[in-house]
Design a protein that fits this description.
- With 238 residues, the protein is of the alpha/beta class.
- It has eleven helices and eight strands.
- The protein has helices at 16-22, 36-42, 45-52, 67-79, 93-105, 123-130, 136-149, 162-169, 196-202, 211-214, 219-233, and strands spanning 7-10, 31-34, 56-63, 84-88, 111-115, 154-156, 174-177, 206-209.
- Helix 8 (162-169) links the parallel strand 6 and strand 7 (174-177).
- The protein is globular and about 45 Å long.
- The structure holds cytidine-5'-monophosphate.
């Protein structure tokens, strides 16, 4: 695929109007991500509108509940036409299996992606706040194994963790990587960050990019510089 087809734009806008006002800046965009802010404001209609406009939609609601609730919610979300859904791996294998089973029963099964550790989480936060005392990379790998065994297609992780996951779980196991920043850009609340070129070189399949584009003075120009960075890296492998 073309290098820019691996970009998922995080539509972190307060509403549909702001999102649709922004989209014409990036005519080559294929994938958009609808997160909690936009979905809670606009409801399912935002997914229909984006699908009708020709986008692939990653519905980033990070589900985490008991297996029955997650299975039933998955049936509803898959029915909206979302192309990708995600779940906190910390919900455990029964919850993940309920999601996988519900997705498979849908006429157009979405890609199922597990959230391992948020890219805003550091080793210190993991230990002192979450109470997990293993190296962060090992925790990410453990969760990735869990979601793969449940029938998921991949994980959300930092691009820095992609080489380990590809080595351990195979090249086809997808990595969707937020925490993307241009060289020298502010990291804001993200911690485990990489540049677009680094993410691609690490083997990431999808790069989730939000504020770097949505808060840019000239989004089209930032898009062009990301594109030329990705083209130099040669694009990711099919
Ligand atoms: O603006 P920025 O590029 O940091 O946006 C990253 C997007 O990816 C946000 O919408 C955030 O919710 C999402 N995300 C993340 N880390 C995860 C999963 C999703 O940053 N582990």
């Amino acid at each position: 695929m073309k290098p820019t087809e691996c970009i998922i734009l995080a539509l972190d806008f307060p509403g549909k109007k702001e999102a649709f006002d922004f989209l014409p800046h990036l005519p080559e965009l294929s994938w958009v991500k609808v997160g909690m802010e936009l979905f809670y404001r606009e409801g399912p209609g935002i997914v229909y509108d984006l699908k009708n406009a020709g986008y692939k939609v990653f519905l980033d609601l990070k589900l985490h509940d008991i297996p029955n609730t997650v299975g039933r919610a998955t049936r509803v979300l898959a029915g909206l036409g979302a192309d990708m859904l995600n779940y906190h791996a910390a919900g455990g294998s029964a919850m993940l299996a309920a999601a996988a089973e519900a997705a498979l029963r849908s006429p157009r099964p979405p890609l199922l992606i597990g959230v391992t550790q948020l890219t805003s989480t550091t080793q210190k936060v993991l230990e002192e706040e979450i109470g997990v005392y293993q190296p962060l990379e090992q925790v990410v790998l453990h969760y990735a194994r869990l979601v793969k065994a449940a029938g998921f297609q991949g994980v959300v992780c930092s691009a820095q963790e992609t080489p380990l996951l590809k080595r351990e779980l195979g090249r086809d196991f997808l990595t969707v990587t937020p925490g993307i920043r241009l060289a020298g850009e502010e990291t804001q609340d993200q911690r485990r960050v990489t540049t677009p070129a680094e993410a691609l070189a690490f083997g990431s399949d999808y790069l989730v990019i939000g504020r770097t584009l949505t808060r840019a003075k000239d989004p089209a120009q930032v898009w062009e510089s990301i594109k030329s960075e990705l083209n130099k890296t040669g694009g990711n492998q099919p």
